């Protein structure tokens, strides 16, 4: 962001826009790709303001487009195709003993199926709002300037570093190294590049921190620990052990979805992993079923994931109104088909 890469991306998307529907599709798939390159929380944090700003500049006479473009970013953040694509998945993969490359080989097909289903349903839900009608509000809906801002010094170095870090994950983990080592090395090099080219300021990071969200995450983690101490892990384990085969995976996915939506997916993932440890013959399929539910279930309620909280906080700062009813309706209509598609691919593996 500080290097100007996001501003250039926004202008490029804006200059190539042919219709609201086409631009919505582009924003969705760019956001889906960003969850792979970064992770879902980072993608939502940096792309939500970009998408809303893009809608407002490209279609100044149509304020109703801001919410669909914001939803395109949020809904594109679904099943994490890589371990690094969602911090919750890193926790669960560590518990389940699933390594980086094994995880990617099994989850990328699931990610493709669930993301495609999400796009189809989301595009259908917003098709009327995204129609090509033009509203005159003192000015035509003409596109803004097609000129792109110049790249900041060091922008290419940041892009190259991002590519190197992404490529290093499967290599280092394949050799037995830890994921955190790659991330730490990448962060250190990024700081060095930023200092050399004078990119950004510490105040940019400080303004991006939402301490109420951090407090909320700490609080729900405490709730999760309390639920474990009162025996919820044992009850979950008994429930999962009562089913077998594909039925068990579907049960784990459903319980994980509802639990993540109500409790938050981070503590729910820990509870799930502890419960599955005590279930006879539970393996990678049950672990991935829990992750699918933890990734897609938070679409049902706003407090279900850190990405959702970041998204809502971004909308508040951008003055984009999304009612609780709209969130619940759109979230359920999109999440349920995506869950079904993801579970179908998982059971077919």
What's the assembly state of these chains? single chain
Largest sheet: none
Q: How many helices? A: 16
Q: If you compute it from the alpha carbons, what radius of gyration comes out, rounded to the nearest whole angstrom? A: 21 Å
Q: What's the order of the H and E elements? A: HHHHHHHHHHHHHHHH
Tell me the distance between the termini: 39 Å
Number of strands: 0
Poorly predicted residue ranges: 135-146
Provide the helix percentage.
Answer: over 70%
Characterise this structure.
By secondary structure, the chain is an all-alpha fold. Helix content is about 70%, strand content about 0%. α6 crosses α16 (about 325-349) and α12 packs parallel to α14. It is globular, with a radius of gyration of 21 Å.
Summarize the entry for a quick read.
The chain has 349 residues and is mainly alpha-helical.
């Amino acid at each position: 962001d500080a290097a100007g890469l996001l501003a250039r991306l926004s202008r490029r998307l804006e200059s190539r826009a042919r219709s609201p529907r086409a631009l919505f599709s582009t924003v969705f798939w760019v956001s889906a790709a960003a969850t792979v390159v970064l992770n879902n929380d980072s993608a939502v944090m940096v792309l939500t303001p970009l998408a809303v700003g893009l809608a407002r500049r490209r279609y100044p006479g149509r304020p109703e487009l801001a919410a669909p473009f914001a939803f395109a970013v949020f809904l594109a953040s679904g099943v994490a195709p890589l371990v690094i694509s969602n911090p919750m998945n890193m926790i669960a993969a560590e518990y389940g003993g699933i390594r980086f490359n094994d995880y990617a080989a099994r989850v990328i097909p699931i990610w493709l199926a669930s993301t495609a289903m999400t796009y189809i349903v989301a595009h259908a839900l917003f098709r009327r709002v995204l129609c090509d009608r033009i509203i005159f509000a003192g000015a035509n809906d003409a596109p803004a300037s097609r000129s792109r801002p110049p790249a900041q010094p060091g922008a290419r170095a940041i892009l190259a570093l991002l590519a190197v870090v992404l490529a290093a994950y499967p290599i280092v983990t394949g050799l037995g190294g830890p994921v955190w080592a790659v991330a730490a090395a990448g962060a250190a090099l990024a700081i060095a590049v930023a200092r050399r080219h004078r990119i950004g300021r510490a105040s940019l990071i400080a303004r991006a921190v939402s301490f109420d969200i951090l407090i909320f995450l700490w609080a729900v983690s405490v709730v999760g620990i309390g639920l474990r101490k009162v025996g919820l892990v044992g009850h979950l384990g008994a429930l999962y052990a009562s089913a077998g085969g594909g039925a068990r995976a579907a049960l784990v996915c459903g319980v994980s979805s509802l639990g993540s939506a109500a409790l938050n997916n981070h503590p729910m993932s820990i509870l799930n992993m502890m419960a599955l440890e005590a279930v006879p013959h539970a393996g990678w399929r049950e672990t991935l079923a829990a992750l699918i539910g933890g990734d897609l279930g938070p679409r049902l309620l706003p407090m279900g994931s850190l990405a959702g909280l970041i998204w809502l906080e971004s909308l508040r700062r951008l003055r984009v109104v999304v009612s609780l009813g709209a969130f619940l309706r759109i979230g359920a209509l999109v999440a349920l088909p995506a869950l079904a598609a993801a579970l179908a691919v998982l059971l077919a593996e």
